[in-house]
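ugh ok fine here u go
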Amino acid sequence: MTRKTDTQITWKTFSEGLWANNPVFVMLLGMCPTLAVTNSAINALAMGLATTFVLLASGLLVSLLARYIPKQVRIATYIVIIATFVTMIDYIIQAISLDLYNALGAFIQLIVVNCIILGRAEAYASKHRPAKAVLNALGMGAGFTLALLCLGLVREILGSGSVFGVDLFGPAFQPWVIMTLPPGGFLVLGAWLLLFDWFRLRRQQKETVTGGQSDVA
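structure:
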């Protein structure tokens, strides 16, 4: 498999996953765990870190082995690599906290079919050197974790009156129970998508105005 000749590592290599190509807020990938496990901040953080680990490890291994993997079986090979690291993180979370493991449920194993990871392996890691593939995977993982935290924090604060299990408002607070239920996930996700798109449009307008002024000058 041929690799791109551009091996220069820039800030964009990492940052595109945070903003320009955020997996959740821009590409709308990984919606199942985004909606299912973000009823609390700790669940969101754990799922984000688990996905980041698999992204990093699989991206590195795919980049190292890409030239040796036959084109006809590359997707199957990528899935085997991803499944190996998912199994590892599954046992790690189970060993660290059984309560957290039960809270995340089957969504840990479903990281195998998360299109963010397979997409990065096919579209990026297999075409770039290991250092660049790892940095890009780290940015994508950070962007995914940030998105999950954005949902998890809002839903836990409004739905339980707490952050990472720490009570914020005392016994007088009336929680919005809907925020801990599936409809709450859709509501919060929709609000974040609107906010993210507003910031993106504002940025594009600012760049257009700045570019126009530069042309005039």
